[in-house]
Amino acid sequence: MTKDKKPWGGRFTEPTDRQVEEFTASIDFDKRLYRYDIDGSIAHCRMLARQGIISKEEENKIVSGLKDILEDMEMGNFDYSIDCEDIHMAVERSLMGRIGDVGGKLHTGRSRNDQVSLDMRLYMRDEILRTIDLVKTLKSSLVSLAKNEIDTVMPGYTHLQRAQPVLLSHYLLAYWEMFNRDHSRLTECYQRTNIMPLGSAALAGTGLSIDRDYVSECLAFPSMTKNSMDAVSDRDFVAEFIFDASLLMMHMSRFCEDLIIWTSEEYGFVEISDAFTTGSSIMPQKKNPDVAELIRGKTGRVYGNLVAILTVLKGLPMAYDRDLQEDKEPLFDTIDTVQGSVHILSEMTKNLCFNKLRMSEEAAKGFSTATDVAEYLVMHGVSFRDAHEIVGRLVRYCIEKDKALPSLTMEEFRHFYEGFREDVYDRLTVESSINARNIPGGTSKEMVLRRIVEIEEKKN
């Protein structure tokens, strides 16, 4: 095959217009798949020889040539010419240039349709595992921080209004739970990705006596696709990964949003290390949470990639269509974005300094123990609805008199309900409020410590 001749050119009488070559070429971005294309081709070649479709001598020449190409690629000495269209043709053309026409036998029994699906699955296996490892590190960072801050109290919020006091550790483990679900989803995505499609050829399989089981074994796939048409057109695993990445980015974005708010002077709950912040070009006093803001911003970018891949897939007829070339850029960008974001957030999390005193002071404000007073009345036989109304009137009274609940006299308490006793004051402290939530999933110190032990035991 000469440099200018296309592998599919036998049917054509005119050369491809240069503009068409530039428009259709994917080599600029799918060259990222080079290692997987070589690995898949070596496994396919060994199978062809094992089945007697090519000779042992031809196998040795092809495999040796492929390894030489891989070495050049690793060293940065490979020419990714646009004339090659994609990484598959780039490898094949280079191979034939090195070992002659015997290189053309490599494509026996396969199509670029099943070849690219194989490359993508091999590539994604590695990237999913790499992403999982990064998520594990982030989860570990949160658990370590939760252990260090086990006695730190903070105001919990609903509707961004002070609600009830909680342990900071309980808050941090809430994000651990989110990232643990991300971990689980990625693990399941890996299982659905880890299926061998080669042998499906263009869409109908091949009439040659290939051995798909052997190729699966060579490439460490536990199973193979069951329908050749589905195999070449399936990009569910791509869309699924980008969806999983979108949820992961959303969880990180929510955490970053809290940190951004908490670093403001209005809150003053946390300080991010100087190493993970930036300054202003005009205001010398500024210390900006730019890393957190960028993670928040990049979340929208990954969402866009999800919409892009779903839109590409939504109207495709069976089986392979060139539209599927558009799966790679959204996927590659998502992988780069999510892995970079998880890594930097893990490092930033290790360098957070919480203002324990301020958080504790704020946790006591805003009538945060009002629910505890209502529960006190319930334990003394009052229905919850009546208790809710009584405490609501108590709170309104405090607002009008500019008082806090702990400052009320017993006479004032009994003005709203005669059944109040002196022990109600025991329910008005932040510490008692937190430790009263001593149920599985609650914010009491005992339950938070128990959850940390469960997490660490499961990890081991």
Number of strands: 4
Whole-number count of domains? 3
Point out poorly predicted stretches. none
Largest sheet: 2 strands, antiparallel
Name of the CATH superfamily of the largest domain: Fumarase/aspartase (Central domain)
The CATH class of the largest domain, by name, is Mainly Alpha
Specify the CATH architecture of the largest domain.
Answer: Up-down Bundle
Q: Compute the CA-based radius of gyration.
A: 31 Å
Q: Which structural class do you get from the secondary structure elements? A: mainly alpha
Order of helices and strands: HHHHHHEEHHHHEHHEHHHHHH
- CATH T-level fold name of the largest domain: Fumarase C, Chain A, domain 2
Q: Top keywords for this entry?
A:
460 residues; mainly alpha; Fumarase C, Chain B, domain 1; Ribonucleotide Reductase Protein R1, domain 1; 3 domains; two-stranded antiparallel sheet; 18 helices; elongated
